[in-house]
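Write out this protein's structure.
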Amino acid sequence: MSLNSFISASRNIMRGDAGINGDAQRIEQLTWLLFLKVYDTKESNWEVYEAEYRSIIPEHLRWRNWAIDDKDGQARTGQQLLDFLNTELFPTLKQLPITQTTSLRKAIVRGVFEDANQYMKDGVLIRQLVNLVDDIDFDDYNESHAFGLIYETLLKQLQSAGSSGEFYTPRAVTDFMVKATNPTLDDSIADFAAGTGGFLTSALRHLEAQVETVEDRQKYQSSVHGIEKKPMPYLLGVTNLLLNGIDAPSYFHGNSLDRNVREYKESEKYSLVLMNPPYGGKEQASIQSNFPLALRSSETADLFVSLIMYRLKRGGRAGVVLPDGLLFGSDRAKLEIKKKLLTEFNLHTIIRLPGSVFAPYTSIATNLLFFENTGPTKQTWYYRVDLPEGYKAFSKTRPMELQHFDECWAWWNDRHDIKDEGGTYKARAFTASELADLGYNFDQCGYPTEVEEILSPEETIASYKTRRAALDAAIDAKIAQIEALLAVKE
C-alpha cells in the first residue's frame, strides 16, 4: 500500500463523517484502529511461540473477531457497528482488569483506551476505515516497514493540527541528537515527556544496526522507556513503538513531574536521556514542591531540566531541546539550574537552532543542550546552525532536513572557533568560569539581528524630504509617459 494512497483514502473517508473535526481527531480515530490491528498481529506471533498465551482482550472484542470483512455480508457495519464500538468495545477496553501481576504488554491495552475517543458517527464510513486498516499486512516485513513511514507522516501532520503540534519533534532534530549521543544496546534510554515517541523511535533505528544475536534483540526490546502525560500522544506513542518492533513498550501514561526528585533510586535512573520538554507551560505549587527550593520554577521546561539531572546515571549523557528563555533567563530557578549544569555536570555543547525549526507550531527559537554526568564543566562549545542558502525560514513545505546539520556535524568532530562575515562568532568555546562571569548568561553565539538606525528629528525631516522628492519625480515621469501616449493616439 502506497503512503499517499493510504493517507488520502483515510482522509477522504473521515472527511465525510460529521463526528470528525480537524486533523487531530482524524489522526486519533485512525490510530486506535491501527493500535488494535498491530496488537492483534503481535498477539498472533505470541500465540505461536507461547502455548499458554491468553489475550487480555475478551475474545469477541479482538480485532480478528469483529473487524475482518470476509465479503460475505456478515461483517458488522452501519448502526450495528457503531453500537458495538460505543457500547461494547470502548467501555470494556477502558475497564480491563489490571493487577500487579499483569504483564506490561497486556496492561498497555487499557492504558491506551482509558482516554481514547471514538469520534465517528457514521457506521458505514467506520466500516470503510476498518477495511482500509485491515488491508495492511503487518506480518510482511516490507509492508510493515513501509507503514512505519506512513505513520511517521501522520505524526508529522500534527505540526499543523492546532495545539497537538507540541507533541511532534522534527525527525531531523531527533536523528541528529541520537547521532550526537550515539546510543548502544547497553544503554537505557529515556524520554520523560515522550509525546509520540519520536526520540525513542530515532534511537531504535540507530540501535537496529547493532542487533546481531538473540541477546542483542532482547536488549533492543528493553532499551527505550517513555512517559507521557496527555492521552492522545500517549496513544500515538505506544502505537509508534509497536510499529518499530517493541513487543511490550515500557511507555507509561502519567506525569513525570508528579514525584519528589530526591526519591529516585539508582535503578530508576538512565544512561541516556533524550527529550524535548513542553515549554510555555506553567506548573502548580504542588508540582514545584517536588524539587529543591532553589530549583522550583513555574515553567515546565525548567523543571524537566532539573528532573533530567536527578535521573541521569553517573557517567550518563543527555540531549535536550530547550527554548531561548533558559539561556538568557535570570530568575532564581534558571540561574540555579544553569549553575548546577556547570558545577555538577559537563555541559559540553549548545547548538543554536533557527526560530522556524518547529514552524508552523511555534516560531520560538530553540537550542540543543548536550551534557554528561561526569563531573564539572571545563568548557562549553557553542555552534549556530544558520538557515540554508535560499531559505528565509523553514516551513511546513520546506522543513528542516538532516542534511541541514551536515556542517554542524563536521564541526562536531573538529571543533574550532568560527566567525561570520560580520565578525560575530558562529562557533566558540567558553570556559565555565567565563560563563559564570557573564552572570550565567548562556545566550552566546546567537543570530545577528537587524539594527534599526535612529535618526535625529532634523535628519528624519531631511530624509523624508529626499524620499518625497524622489517619489514625486518618479510620479511626474510616469504622468509624462502617459500624456505622450495619449498625444500620439490623438
